[in-house]
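Hi L.,

You mentioned the student needs an example of a multi-chain input paired with its predicted structure. This one should do, with 578 residues in total across all chains.
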Amino acid sequence: MSTQTSPTPSAASPATAPPAPAGGLNVSRTTATAARVLRQLRHDPRTIALLMLVPCLMLFLLRYVFDGSPRTFDNIGASLLGIFPLITMFLVTSIATLRERTSGTLERLLAMPLGKGDLIAGYALAFGALAIVQSALATALAVWFLDLDVTGSPWLLLLVALLDALLGTALGLFVSAFAASEFQAVQFMPAVIFPQLLLCGLFAARDTMHPALEAVSDVLPMSYAVDGMNEVLRHTEMTATFVRDVLIVAGCALLVLFLGAATLRRRTP
Amino acid sequence: MMNFRPGSRPPDREARESEKQSPRGTAPGIRGGSGAPGGSASTQGSGGHGDPAEAAAPAVRAQDLSVVRGPRTVLRTLDFTVPRGQITGLLGPSGCGKSTLMRAVVGTQAKVTGTLDVLGRPAGHPALRTRIGYVTQAPSVYDDLTVRQNLDYFAAILDPGRAAADRRHENVTRAIADVDLTTHADALAGNLSGGQRSRVSLAVALLGTPELLVLDEPTVGLDPVLRRDLWNLFHDIAETRGATLLISSHVMDEAERCHRLLLMREGGILADATPDALLTRTGADTVEAAFLHLVDAATQTAREKESTR
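Structure written out for the whole complex:
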């Protein structure tokens, strides 16, 4: 990128431009990357089982923890449907991309004609697909078997869950650039996710917090993920607040994905 | 053991035996010597002139090349060329800057200054990404994919699109055969031995018929039979595909299998010559002895300079 390998007169006529790796996405390379990520996971059935079953198990536990107060389960359950995909995808992506960095495959890929966007989009696609299955399972379980009382459409719950998963993937990709080892990557989970978890309105309504914390929670994306879930819980129609929440979460995911792409360097020290 | 299919490749190297006198795996004294290799001739920085195959520009040309890593200057104002269509060995002790030099050529090294042209373009130019095959020292493949799945993926990056599927399949099968892993094609890379994994990594670099192969210690830790087979493969690639190979090693006895040598030490180039010219110049029997001779001579000169100061 920013090296000073001075171009010599003999070199580089711009007329013979290469297949541009920078701007546009290459669809086949992106899907090949997504297929590769999923294929890697397929060789690891235990991870898949954990990804799919743990959120369901948690919801199941929660339902009977709040056996006496179904209202509380409605509130927390709906919020958690949005939070689980974010957390699991964050963890999986940060470790997966860290492995890609440390195994040398990232260096190899970036020495090949793979655009950074292709790689990031490939990851987002693969984990997004996984998140759809995970969220569908959790939402179905909550709505049909655990009597989660949702006023709005379960499809909207699924939509928010998917966007949350994308946000998690994006954050994981971004954070893995700052982790030198798996130990550090795992520690980023409490560092990045827990503050959001505390401030997102799950434990106390955001407008009852200390004004300073409320202000902080206003700029954290998870607050809007939980808000969105609660909108679906309480309203039959898509409200303006819901649309705003969804757009904010999607916008944050995109923004962080771009930031993540910017952390990929073709030339490293 | 190895599968060579010269018939399927461009027959553009008819005169190969006469022009390169294939040093493949035999005793030293491979090269009859182009011109009189008088001991006096300076080998430093000679651009491979005198080789009849050198009509084209060199594959790699470095002038004043320096690389800084952290506080350390790893490569110091290097000048060298790597001729096309030949095997150039990059030899030197561990930590002398071989890998950094290779990363600079491939375009993955940051903080490179000076001029470094690769295949007629500045190193790291996007157009070079399909034309260079690169193998890092540690095998860089996905341990949780099979050999074939690994290659399928990298092939899809090099040559994307559904239309190219048949060509890709052919390429992948050939690359697996080239490194003699056909019987392991469906094994997970993580379950293979170290030597097998490094061959998977090598196979990735052979995809897409690159013009320049940059191989960082590809034969380290392999048994002698496999090492011989790989060197035969390298020679086959140079001769039948006309590719240029830059191969690093810290095992000096591999030097005799190269057409040209770049001897490195402490971020500088000690010698740039054919193995024969090197032996003649230093009067040594082996490349290792020649290397030691050059190191001693360099230390001597440095000491003399210091004492005259």
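You could point out the following to them. Chain B touches chain A through 47 residues (CB under 8 Å). Helices of chain B lie at 16-20, 98-106, 147-158, 165-178, 194-206, 224-240, 275-282, 287-308.

Best wishes,
N.
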